[in-house]
Amino acid sequence: MVNNDSIFEIRGLKTQFFTSKGIVPAVDGVDITVRKGEAVGLVGESGCGKSMTAMSVMQLLKKPGRVVDGTIKLNGEDLLKMNKREINDIRGNRISMIFQEPMTALNPVYTIGKQAMEALMIHQKISKEDAKAKVIDMFAKVGIPEPEKRFSVYPHQLSGGLRQRVMIAMAMICNPELMIADEPTTALDVTIEAQILYLMSQLQKEVGTAVIMITHNLGVVAESCDYVYVMYAGKIMEEAPVKELFKNPLHPYTFGLMNSIPKMTEVKTHLYTIKGMVPNLLNLPQGCRFCPRCDKAMKICTMYQPDLYELEDGHKVRCFLYNKEVMESGK
What's the whole-model pTM score? Predict the structure, then answer.
């Protein structure tokens, strides 16, 4: 991706878990770039490292996990070199996150209004009265009915859709430069999902916030993202502008994900599935990590890991099928 106007860059990120059975390379040399106001998708099956990437950015990893290499830069400042106080100043203020399950992210013993006020009072140093007014205004913006009344309710008194709207309001309340949304619509029905995605795009346009959308749902990516990274077993396998990726998926894994989506225009007796499972990160295959599941695997794929090859402008793929020397040699 072109780095012009980029506000957020991950370079060579490696996050590992040090267990009694060995080292788990949950995120293994990941590069991601996000420009101002852009929505970037991070796609892959469960267990591919998407959420671990987000937790590494937010520095919310729990032991035995830790970032062992790489840089995470927000407007040129490396977050990994900051102390705890500096990170606390950024988290929830300049970078915010919408978690996958709002019921576990929201504190059940505090009202939603009090929880939403907290970030404002910490980061913007405003009075309780002003913070309450801002929260009620944001609740109204995200479509929460009767925001003044809902200000005083507890998370369990709201539906899943309303809880997710509260999470979005809390994430947007300080006008962050970057918002990370980790499967924000997974537990919602399709009607509410469409409303939430529309709401996020509208707030993004109004405030100019950049978004990283973490999902396994390619439909969500097509609807809401400008650029997409496909992740598998801790590595980026393909990246491209979203229209280019859907028009011309290159990696066999991306192609498999696309073919697994049911299409209204096609009648099939069986849905396409990618054979096998995501590998155990403690026992990765020697060569390409997708090789054991790949219909197009060659001998070289079982021996070496391919690099991320750049083909057309903005389209990169980690696959020997796009290495001219390998294909010409017939390996």
Answer: 0.91
